[in-house]
Design a protein that fits this description.
Distance between the termini: 130 Å
Radius of gyration: 38 Å
Oligomer: single chain
Order of helices and strands: H
Number of strands: 0
Number of helices: 1
Length: 90
């Protein structure tokens, strides 16, 4: 009788242990899928933001280069005009 009770309890413990192990494996697997999904979403969001920043930065660079080019042309004409006026006065 005692031996049977002991064996029954051992079998119950083994079943509980296997159930717990299975539950842990299922939970771990689901957690890994959730983490992978979250990570993929974060990467996509970051890539979208980086591409947006690159496009905006390229636009600013182009605008700045155009402004410098315009100012450079203005300075050249201003200098040429100044030398022309000096030449006429001398």
């Amino acid at each position: 009788q005692l031996e049977q009770d002991s064996q029954r309890r051992q079998d119950e413990i083994d079943r509980n242990l296997n159930t717990t192990k299975s539950d842990i494996e299922t939970t771990l697997s689901q957690t890994q899928r959730n983490i992978n999904s979250t990570l993929e979403h974060a990467q996509n969001t970051i890539n979208t933001q980086v591409n947006s920043v690159q496009a905006t930065l390229s636009s600013y660079i182009r605008t700045t280069q155009d402004q410098f080019s315009t100012e450079n042309s203005f300075m050249v004409y201003q200098l040429a005009g100044t030398f022309t006026l000096l030449g006429c006065l001398i």
